[in-house]
Amino acid sequence: MFTHRLLGVAAALVGLSTFADAAEPDAFGDAVNISERPIAGYVPGTGINVVCTLFFLTVTVLLWYQYWRRSMRCMLVLNIGSTCMTIGFILRLVYAKASTDIGRYIIQYMLILLSPCAFIAMDYILLPRLAVHVAAEDCLFIRPERVAKIFIWSDVSTFLIQCAGGGMSAAAGDIASVGEKISIVGIVIQLVSFGLFTVLLLNFGWRVKQRYPRVWHTTALSGVIASKPFDFFSRKPALQTWKVLYFALAYTCIGILIRSVFRTIELCQGYSGYLATHEGYLIGLDTFPLWLAITAFVFVWPPRWFTPDSKIPSGHASVYESVQVMGSSSSSGGPKLEMV
């Protein structure tokens, strides 16, 4: 149901932006020299891009605020990526004033195209950390220390491939055609890689629920003062349930997958294809899903979960699964748990 609503809002944004484009007179008829045509195939709409800039700027400020309150070095990946995305939309407004300037086009295009690589890398980093934190390393079918390495290297590779393709595609002649093909290869590899990661994430949750039901249903560690999971202004750790962070990761995967599928189809159509030359689809199927994805981390800030007090001891069978429900007479020596 939530996914249907998300797609419905995205479709509305597509329609709104397309309507705005249609309302503007066509200043690029056949009588105009080809050198005077916008490089992107259209002039970016000022209104919709101002809105996108403000949305990403707001999220970026809030992410840096969260980082200042409770920092964890790996979160710099997300914050820097969000910052670059914001700069990309600011420069997109600059490019709109000179839509035939290839230099302005390349810079804004590359920032908007490549910044999501940081959002993807953030998920790659958080899943193995979460698995270790709840002592469920065996529920990943790839060893935790290898998850980040494998998928981040894949992300870096696709980043470089898309950099090369994006730069070449802005050129003229056969080089642009080759650049399009290279970009397609990069985005397809990224889509496949993230699709496999999503399978890994979902399989991890299913395995934890099947193998360690008490770990899955744990709501809080006794004796620890914790805040509500979505309490944005709290400095206290959010220990009620690690599943909040797990489902936040799954939620971000939805937006990233929508964006990756869109970009794959867009690049397959070519830079003069229907999707590439209609801004509404970029806003509704790329910008908006990504914005929703990273906004989740504003409220579900991962460092609030990765605290020493919330870490589940290793050794499920002997320590954790044998612990009885709060109020029982268990004396296993492990932390007592409040169960759902």
Descriptive report:
The chain is globular, with a radius of gyration of 23 Å. The longest helix has 38 residues, at 174-211. Helices cover 65% and strands 2% of the residues. It has a two-stranded antiparallel sheet. It has 340 residues and is mainly alpha-helical. The protein has eleven helices and two strands.
Largest beta-sheet details: 2 strands, antiparallel
Radius of gyration: 23 Å
Based on secondary structure, the structural category is mainly alpha
**Low-confidence regions:** 1-7, 9-34, 220-227, 322-340
Give the helix level as a range of percent.
55-70%
Count up the helices: 11
Q: Give the strand content.
A: under 5%
List the main descriptive attributes of the protein structure presented here.
mainly alpha, two-stranded antiparallel sheet, single chain
Give the secondary structure arrangement, pairings included.
Layout: H1 2-23, H2 46-69, H3 76-96, H4 102-114, H5 116-133, H6 144-169, H7 174-211, H8 213-217, E1 218-221, H9 243-269, H10 279-299, H11 316-320, E2 337-339
Antiparallel strand pairs: 1-2
What would you say about this model in short?
With 340 residues, the protein is an all-alpha fold.
